[in-house]
Amino acid sequence: MPSRPDLLAFDTSAAHCAAALLVGDEIVQSRVEEMKRGQAERLMPLLEELLAEAGLGWRDLDAVAVGIGPGNFTGIRIAVSTARGLALGLGRPAVGVDGFEAASYGARRPFSCLIPTTRDMVYREDVTQEGVRGPMLQPRAEAESEIADLGYPIVPMPSIGETVANIARIAATRFDGTLPRPAPLYVRAADAAPPKDPAPVILP
Fold it and tell me: How far is CA 83 from the centre of its chain?
């Protein structure tokens, strides 16, 4: 494993398409584009633009990293499937990093991490000296009240650009070619539900 890897990280877990290119110890290129839809069409061109701006090609990478959620169900699937495809095609490791790790990068225990989502809800994770509690989905007011009772600090949410840069920095410390494939972190079920009606009987 290279001690100073060249690594491309990306995230589409919310209303954005974000990427960061880590070369050695430095983020040399990064891009955040706000968008409510269209991440599937925009992600690969965005990644290719970052590589071209740095004078690199896909084969120069030692690994790819991806934000695995929590967040938008479809957005997470887009990023994770892209990372898996790139890893397979390039013969490089793909590293999944969850949003709580990226948001709280460098924080000292104990702390709580709240990732905002729709309808004044948050994804919550508490990190103590003993371990991790969560993730869970809660109303923001309820989560903040419980955390105040516990006396934990809430880590400030970084910008999307800093978050995807943290995904790259974290992934650079843990890839070795033996990690399992990145898998989505879904805190709640997808909005789409399977049909309740029984499947039709297929006659021979």
Answer: 11
Angle between helices 39-53 and 73-90 (to 10 degrees): 50
Structure tokens, 153: 């600090």
Please name each of the domains of the chain with its CATH number. 1-105+158-189 (3.30.420.40), 108-156 (no CATH)
Which ranges of 140-201 would DSSP assign to H, the alpha helix? Answer: 140-150, 160-171
> Which of these, 14, 65, 70, 75, lies nearest to 185 by C-alpha position?
70
d(CA 61, CA 63): 6
Structure tokens at 28: 């040399």
**CB neighbours (10 Å) of residue 120?**
9
Contact criterion met (CB below 8 Å) for 165 and 29: no
Q: Are 27 and 21 in contact (CB under 8 A)?
A: yes
The pLDDT tens digits of the residues spanning 76-127 come to 999 999 999 999 999 999 999 999 999 999 999 999 999 999 999 999 999 9
Q: Which amino acid is at 1?
A: M
CA distance 196 to 175: 42
Cα-Cα-Cα-Cα torsion 127, 128, 133, 136, nearest 10 degrees, comes to: -40
Q: How far is the C-alpha of 152 from the C-alpha of 165, rounded, in Å?
A: 25
Q: What is the pTM of this model?
A: 0.90
Which residue type does 90 have?
L
